[in-house]
Amino acid sequence: MEDYGFEYSEEEQEEQDVDIENQYYNAKGLVETDPKGALAGFSEVVNMEEEKAECNLSPAVDDTDVPLYLFL
C-alpha cells in the first residue's frame, strides 16, 4: 500500500481511534435522553471516520439505535 509521503505514528492513529470511540459512546449515551443530540454526535463520528479514512482507509462500522424519525 502506498503512503503518499505521509508518516503517521501508531500513537497518532491510536489517539484518533480513542477520540472516535469516545465520541461514539458519548453519542450512544444520549440516544434515550437527547435523540437529536445523539444524531449530531453520530454525525461527528462519521466526520471523524472520514478524516481517519483518508489516512488509513479503515472506517469503523457499528449498529446504532437512532430513531428513524430523526432523519425525516
UniProtKB/TrEMBL annotation:
Q: Which InterPro entries match?
A: 26S_Proteasome/COP9_Components
What this protein is called in its record is Uncharacterized protein
Supply the source organism for this entry: Fagus sylvatica
